[in-house]
From TrEMBL:
Gene name per UniProt: cobT
Substrates-to-products reaction catalysed: 5,6-dimethylbenzimidazole + nicotinate beta-D-ribonucleotide = alpha-ribazole 5'-phosphate + nicotinate + H(+)
GO MF terms held by the record: nicotinate-nucleotide-dimethylbenzimidazole phosphoribosyltransferase activity
Annotated metabolic or biological route of this protein: Nucleoside biosynthesis; alpha-ribazole biosynthesis; alpha-ribazole from 5,6-dimethylbenzimidazole: step 1/2
Keywords, sorted A to Z: Cobalamin biosynthesis, Glycosyltransferase, Transferase
CDD domains, A to Z: DMB-PRT_CobT
EC code(s) of this entry: 2.4.2.21
Protein name: Nicotinate-nucleotide--dimethylbenzimidazole phosphoribosyltransferase
Length: 354
């Protein structure tokens, strides 16, 4: 159902560079382990990038947008028209991620992966098989061909980003209704009830959340996708921007480009990517834990620990962008600190007493 490249092995993580980075960390002028998880981050990045000097300088941001037929069931606090309006806001520089991209010196590309926009929009790449998904409470969201197209959309975006020689990539998303879609995918992949995973998204109340969970559980049962293959889950209850991100993650890992994972929706796309192609797993770097209820469960399933937890629930790649300076600090420390020998600082004595 999906293109062959989706299943091709991702780049090898370099054990040689991991060992070299571990040895380098041990020589830096600090008590062993004193930089905590930043040490691990630098070591993993060195292994992923197969380099002695891990880098997080060039980090293009790509936002994939899509609309969701499921909004007809009253599952979002905001009108569907926000998706297209925010796409224009990203492109004209007024959205949170636009500000963060400028602050970080990152390029920002907006891809219409499946919004309801009838026409091409200025400053936005249009690359979609249809306008919006079907309402998955009544029929499958996508055809197999539409799903395959969305994966290619993700791969094409990564191929364009390669021109910037990225050290890392950040993928963001925009799509009113996409926390419902993501919760349906996550519930199906994890074999859990929507009650455990569905959150308040853009801000629905407790009654709205209970309704959202019922809509999801009924749809998962209707399509019979609890515990099904990721391909069937994405076709039945998926979203075009989510499938595009899934393809983009695999394509990035195949090109040895680590990805800083954003919030709930991007993490669900990452979980589907890992289920489709487990060799992309090491290339997923955590950023933040979103306020969306199910994010903790999805991060646990991905086996990653978030760097920060600031109750963000914006999406757009904003959590990853906010966490990027920590990754940059980890690299700068790894590459720039003096060793005990260079600085003439006495190291801890080796042996049992040391
Ligand atoms: O990234 C997150 O964790 C996150 C959590 C809640 C909401 N969002 C954003 O809000 C939109 C989806 O919310 P909703 O309520 O319409 O499903 C979508 O555009 C996401 O970018 C994002
Ligand atoms: C205004 C607005 C901005 C967003 N950015 C990402 N999701 C969003 C949802 C809304 C409603």
């Amino acid at each position: 159902m999906l293109p062959d490249w989706v299943y091709k092995k991702c780049a090898e993580v370099s054990a040689v560079h991991r060992e070299a980075a571990i040895a380098q960390q041990a020589q830096l002028t600090k008590p062993t382990g004193a930089l905590g998880r930043l040490e691990q981050l630098a070591i993993e990045l060195a292994a992923l990038q197969a380099t002695e000097q891990p880098r997080a300088a060039r980090v293009p941001i790509i936002i994939f947008a899509g609309d969701h037929g499921i909004v007809a069931q009253g599952v979002s606090a905001y009108p569907q028209a926000v998706t297209i309006a925010m796409m224009a806001n990203f492109a004209s520089g007024g959205a949170a991620i636009s500000v963060l991209a400028r602050e970080l010196g990152s390029s920002l590309e907006v891809v219409d992966a499946g919004s309801l926009a009838e026409q091409e929009m200025p400053g936005i790449v249009t690359d979609k098989p249809r306008n919006g998904t079907r309402d998955f409470s009544v029929e499958a969201a996508l055809t197999p061909e539409e799903l395959a197209f969305a994966f290619e959309t993700g791969r094409r975006a990564v191929a364009r980003a390669e021109a910037h020689q990225p050290d890392l990539l950040i993928f963001g998303e925009m799509g009113i209704g996409n926390t419902t879609t993501s919760a349906a995918i996550a519930a199906s992949l994890l074999g859990m009830s929507a009650e455990e995973i569905a959150g308040s998204g853009t801000g629905i109340d407790a009654a709205g959340r209970a309704h959202k969970a019922r809509v999801i559980d009924a749809a998962v049962a209707r399509h019979g996708v609890a515990g099904a293959s990721p391909e069937n889950i994405l076709r039945a209850v998926g979203g075009l921007e989510i499938a595009a991100i899934c393809g983009a993650i695999i394509a990035a890992a195949q090109r040895r480009i680590p990805v800083l994972i954003d919030g709930f929706i991007v993490s669900v796309a990452a979980l589907a990517a890992v289920r489709l192609n487990p060799s992309c797993q090491p290339f997923l770097l955590p950023s933040h834990q979103s306020a969306e209820q199910g994010h903790r469960l999805v991060l646990r399933a991905l086996n990653v620990q978030p760097l920060i937890s600031l109750d963000l629930r914006l999406g757009e790649g904003s959590g990853a962008a906010i966490a990027l300076p920590l990754v940059r600090s980890a690299c700068a420390l790894h590459n720039g600190m003096a060793t005990f020998a260079q600085a003439n600082v006495p190291d801890r004595p080796s042996g049992p007493a040391g």
